[in-house]
Design a protein that fits this description.
Blueprint (H helix, E strand, L loop, with lengths): L6 H12 L6 E5 L3 E9 L8 E4 L10 E8 L32 E10 L2 E4 L15 E10 L2 E8 L13 E12 L3 E2 L15 E2 L8 H4 L109 E2 L13 E11 L4 E2 L8 E3 L11 E11 L1 E4 L7 E3 L16 E4 L8 E3 L25 E3 L17 E5 L20 E8 L6 E2 L17 E9 L2 E4 L3 E6 L2 E2 L3 E2 L2 E4 L8 E2 L4 E2 L7 E8 L6 E2 L18 E9 L2 E4 L3 E6 L16 E2 L7 E14 L4 E12 L6 E7 L4 E6 L2
C-alpha cells in the first residue's frame, strides 16, 4: 500500500510530539504466547474463519494473534520411488506446491468456544484448511503505545517440532519501540541434525556398493548416510537421511564421514565436504547438499503473486555426517527464527535485531563436520527509524573436521543467508543490515583444506505489506502538553496499515467541559491541526478502508495555564567599570502548571553583540546581580514552569565613559557639578545623589534618584538650583 504522507513532514511533526515525556513499557524475555494449531476451519469464503488449538487457555476474545503455517511443503524427489513428493523436481528442491507453508496473517479473536478460536474475518484464500503433513501455530501478539526492549533483551522459545510452537517474536507498537537491548531469535528456527546422537555407522566407504550409497533419500533405519536438517517439508515425508536437501534443511553426508550441508533460507546453503579420503573412488558426490534457496527467481518473499505472497520461513537446520564407533560427528546448526514488528518508529539505542543461523559447535575429530543453520527472517512494517539499528540474519558456520590419521574427513557447509524485508521503497541508512556470510567448515589437520563453494549472504527486500486481516493498524501519538498561549503542533501520523488504499478519515474530540465524543467538522484528513486550545482536549481518528472502520487510541493534548507577570526592573545608568544595582522582579509572577514553582534563566545582550545569550543556569532565584560592566547592555529573564515559558520585558543598563583626565567623582565634598555651565543637556555629579532640580522661582522641575549624572534636554537656557536630599544645594547654568 502506497504511503501518501510526506515523510519529511511526518517525521518532523512526529518527533516533536515524541519529545514530550512518554511512558515506555519495559519488555524483555518472552512476551508472546504460543499454541499448536490442529485444524484451520477456512473452507467457507463468506464466513469468519477459526482455528482449533491444543489449548486456548492463554487466548481470549479481543486478542491480536498471528497465525503462522510452519511446514507442509511438497519436496522434489526426482524419482517416483519416494512419496509423498514430486518426481518432476530435482531431489531436495522445493516443488512449488507449498500449500499453506510460510503463510502468516494477523487477526483478532472474536469468539472463544472451548479450544476453538473464531476470528473476526476470513483467512482464505491465502490460508486454506490444513492438510495431512502440515503444521501451524497461533501466536498471541502484544500491542504497546511505547515500549523499550531492556538490556536483558527480547527473544522467543526455540522452535519445538514436537510441540509445534516457538521461534517467533512479534509485536505491535503504536508509537516508538526503543531498543536498549537486542531482539534475538538466532538459532531459534528449524533444528539441525543431531549427528552426535545418531546411530553408529558401520557401512564403510561408498566404493563398496555404489548403488546403495548413491541415493539422495533414505529412511531413518537405512544407515547409508547422515541425517538431514529440519526444513519446511511435508511431515509425512519420512526420508530423513541422505545427501539431498530437506528443501531448506541441509542434506546428510552419504558414505563414510562426508560433511553435512548448510541449511538455507532466501539464499542457498553450501554442500558439505566429501567422504573420507581413506576410501577409494566411489559415489562421485557424497557431501550433503546445501538447503534450497527459497528466494530463487522470486519464488517467495514477494508481494505481487497471489500464490507466493505473504510467506516467510524459519532458517533451515544444518545436516550431519555419519557417526562411526570410533568418533563423534558434530550436530548441525539450528536455523534462525523470525521477528515481525509493526510499529511507527524504531529507535536504536544500543540494541539490534538478530535472526542468525547457529554455528556448528566443536571440531569433528576423525569424524564428519555438520552444516551451519540458515539465517532467519526480520520483517519490519515500520514507518521510520531513529538512531542506528543493526540487523543480522546471517547463516551459521559449518563444522570443522580433523584427523589423527592420514585421511581427510568431510567438513560442514555454511548456512545460507536469511532476509530483511522492510516496508517502503528503500532500505533506510540507519538500518545497518549485515551482508556477511557464515564460514564453511575447514579440515584443520595439516595442511588445512577448504574445497567448498563460497557461502552466500542474506538478502534485503523492500515494499513489505504485512497481512493484517479484518482490522487496521491506526496509530496516533499518546499525548503531549502545551501552554494556553501556544499553538499546538498538528497531530501527525502515517497511513493506516492494511485496507485497500482508499482510506477515509474522521477526527473526533472530547474535553473536560464537553464530556462526550463528537465529530470535528471538516477534520477529514490523515493529519489534524487542533489550533489554539484553552482546555485539555482528547482526540481520536476513525479510519475506514476496504469496508473496515477502526477507531484509534486517544491522544491527549494537555493545556497548562500560561505564565503571567514576568516583569523585571533592571534599568540603570553607571560609569564604565561599575556594578549595576540588583535586578529584581517588578511584579508577582503567576500562572503556569506548577503551583507557584518557577525556574529562571537570565540573559544579556551587550551592545557589542547581536543577540541575547544565557547568563545563568536554570535556577529558582528570581533576581540577578550583574558584574562590573564596560558596555551598555540589555537584560531579560526567561521563566519556566512545566512546558510553559515566558520571556520578560527588556531593561537596559546604560554605561557611561569616564571623563578623560578629570574624573569628577574624585572631587570629594562639597557637592559639585561638571561641566558648569551645562552644555548638550548632560552634567555629572561628583558623587551619587538623590534630589530635586528647581528653577529660580522655586518651582520643582525634575526629581533625580540615586544617580551620578543627569540628562536635562528639556531645560532651556538659564539658571537652576539642585538640592540634594542631604540638604546640599548648588547653582548651575544651562547654555545652548
Amino acid at each position: 500500500m502506497k504511503r501518501t504522507i510526506s515523510l519529511l513532514v511526518f517525521f518532523t511533526g512526529f518527533i516533536v510530539q515524541q519529545s514530550y515525556a512518554q511512558v515506555y513499557t519495559p519488555i524483555s524475555g518472552v512476551i508472546n504466547d504460543y499454541v499448536s494449531v490442529t485444524a484451520i476451519l477456512s473452507s467457507q469464503d463468506w464466513n469468519p474463519d477459526s482455528v482449533v488449538v491444543v489449548s486456548a487457555t492463554d487466548f481470549n476474545v479481543g486478542d491480536t494473534v498471528m497465525l503462522y503455517c510452519v511446514k507442509g511443503a511438497t519436496i522434489g524427489t526426482g524419482d517416483p520411488s519416494y512419496t509423498p513428493g514430486d518426481p518432476l523436481y530435482p531431489a531436495g528442491n522445493d516443488a512449488q506446491n507449498p500449500r499453506n507453508t510460510g503463510r502468516y496473517a494477523f487477526l483478532l479473536v472474536s469468539e472463544k468456544i472451548g479450544n476453538t478460536l473464531v476470528f473476526n474475518t476470513i483467512v482464505n484464500p491465502g490460508i486454506r484448511p490444513m492438510g495431512a503433513g502440515e503444521m501451524a501455530q497461533l501466536i498471541r501478539v502484544r500491542s504497546y503505545r511505547y515500549a523499550n526492549v531492556t538490556a536483558a533483551g527480547l527473544t522467543a522459545p526455540a522452535w519445538d517440532p514436537i510441540a509445534g510452537t516457538g521461534g517467533v517474536v512479534t509485536l505491535f507498537v503504536q508509537g516508538i519501540l526503543r531498543l536498549d537491548g537486542d531482539i534475538d531469535v538466532s538459532g531459534d528456527g528449524f533444528k539441525g541434525a543431531q549427528g552426535s546422537m545418531d546411530t553408529e555407522y558401520a557401512a564403510g566407504c561408498s566404493s563398496t556398493d555404489t548403488m546403495s550409497f548413491y541415493e539422495p533419500f533414505y529412511m531413518d533405519g537405512e544407515l547409508w548416510a547422515g541425517l538431514k536438517g529440519e526444513g519446511i517439508t511435508d511431515t509425512q515425508f519420512l526420508y530423513n537421511r541422505g545427501k539431498a536437501s530437506n528443501i531448506n534443511g541441509g542434506g546428510g553426508g552419504n558414505g563414510l564421514l562426508a560433511g553435512g550441508g548448510g541449511g538455507s533460507n532466501f539464499t542457498a546453503g553450501i554442500r558439505g565436504g566429501s567422504e573420507s579420503t581413506a576410501c577409494s573412488s566411489g559415489v562421485s558426490v557424497t557431501g550433503g547438499d546445501g538447503g534450497f534457496d527459497l528466494g530463487r527467481s522470486g519464488w517467495y518473499y514477494i508481494n505481487n503473486n497471489l500464490d507466493r505472497t505473504d510467506r516467510i520461513f524459519f532458517g533451515g537446520g544444518g545436516g550431519s555426517g555419519t557417526r562411526t564407533i570410533a568418533s563423534t560427528s558434530t550436530d548441525g546448526g539450528n536455523g534462525g527464527g523470525i521477528v515481525v514488528i509493526v510499529a511507527e518508529i524504531i529507535y536504536g539505542n544500543g540494541g539490534g535485531i538478530y535472526a542468525d543461523g547457529e554455528d556448528v559447535v566443536g571440531i569433528a575429530v576423525n569424524a564428519a563436520g555438520a552444516g551451519g543453520g540458515g539465517g532467519g527472517c526480520i520483517i519490519l512494517d515500520v514507518t521510520g527509524y531513529q538512531g542506528t539499528i543493526p540487523l543480522s540474519s546471517v547463516g551459521g558456520d559449518g563444522g570443522n573436521s580433523s584427523s589423527t590419521g592420514t585421511d581427510t574427513t568431510g567438513m560442514g557447509g555454511a548456512g545460507g543467508g536469511g532476509i530483511y524485508w522492510t516496508s517502503g521503497s528503500s532500505n533506510p541508512p540507519v538500518l545497518q543490515t549485515s551482508f556477511a556470510t557464515g564460514a564453511n567448515g575447514v579440515f584443520l589437520s595439516a595442511p588445512p583444506y577448504d574445497p567448498l563453494e563460497s557461502p552466500r549472504s542474506p538478502f534485503q527486500q523492500d515494499d513489505l505489506i504485512v497481512p493484517l486481516r479484518g482490522f487496521l493498524f491506526n496509530p496516533l501519538p499518546t499525548e503531549y502538553t502545551v501552554c494556553s498561549d501556544q499553538d499546538p503542533q498538528p497531530i501527525y501520523t502515517s497511513d493506516p496499515r492494511a485496507g485497500d488504499g482508499t482510506d477515509t478519515y474522521q477526527w473526533i474530540d472530547s474535553s473536560s467541559t464537553q464530556n462526550y465524543w463528537a465529530d470535528i467538522t471538516g477534520a477529514v484528513d490523515m493529519a489534524f491541526d487542533p489550533g489554539p486550545l484553552s482546555d485539555t482536549t482528547y482526540y481520536r481518528r476513525i479510519v475506514t478502508s476496504a469496508g473496515i472502520s477502526d477507531t484509534s487510541f486517544r491522544i491527549a493534548i494537555y493545556v497548562h495555564p500560561s505564565i503571567t507577570n514576568n516583569i523585571i526592573s533592571a534599568s540603570d545608568t553607571i560609569y564604565s567599570g561599575d556594578t549595576p544595582k540588583l535586578f529584581e522582579p517588578a511584579a508577582t509572577i503567576g500562572g503556569g502548571p506548577t503551583g507557584g514553582y518557577f525556574t529562571y534563566v537570565w540573559q544579556h545582550q551587550p551592545d557589542s553583540t547581536g543577540s541575547f545569550t544565557d547568563l545563568t543556569e536554570p535556577s529558582e532565584e528570581p533576581g540577578y546581580q550583574a558584574d562590573k560592566l564596560t558596555n551598555s547592555t540589555n537584560y531579560r529573564r526567561i521563566a519556566f514552569a512545566g512546558v510553559c515559558e515566558s520571556i520578560s520585558n527588556e531593561d537596559r543598563v546604560l554605561v557611561l565613559d569616564t571623563i578623560t583626565g578629570m574624573d569628577i567623582r574624585k572631587f570629594g565634598e562639597p557637592l559639585a557639578i561638571y561641566p558648569n555651565p551645562v552644555a548638550e543637556g548632560l552634567f555629572y555629579f561628583n558623587k551619587r545623589v538623590s534630589g530635586t532640580i528647581y528653577n529660580m522661582m522655586g518651582q520643582k522641575l525634575m526629581e533625580l534618584d540615586d544617580t551620578e549624572y543627569a540628562r536635562i534636554p528639556q531645560l532651556g537656557e538659564g539658571f537652576y538650583i539642585f538640592r540634594s536630599q542631604e540638604g546640599e544645594s548648588i547653582q548651575f547654568i544651562v547654555t545652548e
